[in-house]
Amino acid sequence: MTRSESVNALQNVDMELNQNELLGIVGASGSGKSTLARILVLLYRPTSGKIIFEGNDVSNLKGKNLRKYRSQIQMVFQDPYASLDPFHNVEWHIKRPLVITKYDGNINERIDSLLEQVKLTPPSQYRNKFPHQLSGGQRQRVYMARALATNPKVLIADEPVSMLDVSLRIEILDLLLSIKKSLGISIIYITHDLNTVSMITDRIYVLNQGRVVEYGDTKSIVTNPRDSYTQQLIKAAPDPYKKIEVD
Amino acid sequence: MSTILEIRNLNVGYEGENGTTKIINNFNLKIEEGVIFGIAGESGSGKSTLAQAIYNSLRYPGIIESGEVIFDGKDILKLSKRELRRIRAVDTTFIPQAAMNALNPVKRIGDQFNDVFEAHGEDIEESQSRIQSVLNMVRLSPEVLHSYPHELSGGMRQRTVIAMALVLSPKLVILDEPTTGLDVLVEHDILRDIKRIQRQKGFTMLVITHDLSILYQISDWIAMVYAGEITEYGKREDMLNSPLHPYNYLLLKSLPRIGAERYDGIKLIGAPSNYSETNKGCQFITRCPFSKNECQITHPELEAGYGNDHYYRCVRTPDWKP
Q1: Strands B172-176 and B204-209
Q2: Rounded Cα–Cα distance for residues A175 and A158 (Å)
Q3: Could you say which residues of chain A have pLDDT below 70?
Q4: Is the pLDDT at B307 greater than 80, yes or no?
Q5: For residue B17, what are the contacts with CB-CB under 8 A and spacing of at least 6?
Q6: How much is the pLDDT for A3?
Q7: Does B266 touch chain A (CB under 8 A)?
């Protein structure tokens, strides 16, 4: 192997995100799903191909335009324990994007309304809390409020519930649904978990080794998967009622 | 069937500046030989502390305050270090959380197997056939013996750890979060393999995890732990089909499943919490949507359910059932 040899993490991926839809991107580890998320927010640049956002090619944006694009497409990560700064309180985390993007309204009111949006109510109870005083689910809500601060048109959530306790997962998934509905934005939900994807998404793309192997309406794919990889993922999805039998 | 492991009135805490914080409260459990017993708990339930206490491997500031862990007729908590070393890996073995990341990075897998034999005074030459047989069981090629841990995938390392734990044919195998951190497809395969091996060899397996779905998929018996106490336990089918405690009932309802109707009924409130000594009532009260005044007053004891072998800790059963 030579040093210059490169591996394609994603190959010939064609994907469309509609307005106000909840899109699932599903795959096992190494499928390229997180790489895709990072490309969408331009943390990585595609080696070839284009990202078209509202009719414009954004793949090569720089400087001011890049910042503007990123304020419209925000991301929530897997680990709510790592994504918040332990030395700052809730208010600071949500205020920062507002200051950076020069929010022209009343910042205090905006922070309160964002906290209400993610159902951390009453806001006054949470504004001065530090991350260690919050549960995993609450931290993920704070991070979501931060992501929503810039009024994004797209929210990308990369495994937002896999680190949370089982009993808290549903709440966060419900929150994604309610944000989609109340704000009219589009959400991309990236996960390996077909159980949760089947619960909240409208459409899904299944990725395997950097390629889209199947896509379409969520219900029809989970009930009638055509690709063998999708079938495997569905079979392996944990289900308490499906006892593992051995001979 | 005979009992292989019995936990009696176990109390465990962590020592801190303001005295001991209780984690496990008056824990009692009997496990029959040859079954897969699953213990489910969310964060703060004390499940990993429990596993370490059962194996008597809890370290300071963790303190076993009182209780007995009877394994094979002996109280594990009363054994000397030497006696413990003699039974570990031979009679009982513990695969802690993330054990696959604890393989020695600078030693080949084969040499790490040999360490196990050496530590227990087994002849290394004569034991090589046992390695071949356990590797075969966990579906690893003998080539891994020449590899270093970093050359193996996460799934292969977890299989290696399981093989090492089984090489001296223990009677009781304790697994803490056996598949956490593994890919979905790998997880499913490993769970099936673990269960197949357990059925073939007939040892007893104690699996501890936060993942209720996989626990229900592999276990014969299940105990749900909340804030250091068992809230409910029984045979897998009874626990699944007729939950007697709100915790088990609501968790099962709210697990998303492919093709299942979405549950929109009454939900759990709040977030998981630790054992609270100031709470004289039910430990689960802060999360229970069905609680009434009576729940604040009395601390519920484990009671036998309608059938045999199904126990629950709730004064409002069956009235809470919607």
Answers
A1: parallel
A2: 15
A3: 1-4
A4: no
A5: none
A6: 62
A7: no
What is the number of other CB atoms lying within 10 angstroms of the CB of residue B308?
9
Give strand pairing partners of A187. A22, A155
Is residue B292 less than 8 Å (CB to CB) from chain A? Answer: no
Cα B195 from Cα B193, distance rounded (Å): 5
Rounded CA-CA distance B41/B226 in Å is 6
Of B184, B257, B268, the CB nearest to A239: B257
Burial classification of residue A15, based on how many CB atoms lie within 10 Å of its CB (0-12 exposed, 13-18 middle, 19 or more buried)? middle
What is the per-residue pLDDT across A48-66, written as a single tens digit (0 to 9) for each? 999 999 999 999 999 999 9
Sequence-ordered list of residues with C-beta below 8 angstroms from that of B146, at least 6 positions apart, any chain: B108, B109, B110
In the prediction, which pLDDT does A26 show? 96
Q: Count chain A–chain B contacts defined by CB atoms under 8 A.
A: 106
CB B103 within 8 A of CB B151: no
Chain A hits for B184, Cβ within 8 Å: 28, 192-193, 233, 236-237
Q: Name residues 175-204 of chain A within 8 A of B (Cβ).
A: 192-196, 198-199
A132 touches B at CB < 8 Å = no
| C-alpha closest to that of B45 among B24, B59, B29, B31 | B24
User: Domains of chain B: which residue ranges?
Assistant: 246-322
Secondary structure (3-state) at B75: strand
Largest CA distance in chain B: 67
Per-residue pLDDT tens over the stretch B30-44: 999 999 999 999 988
Distance from CA of B192 to the nearest CA of A (A): 6
Rounded to a whole number of angstroms, the distance from the CA of B186 to the nearest CA of chain A is: 9
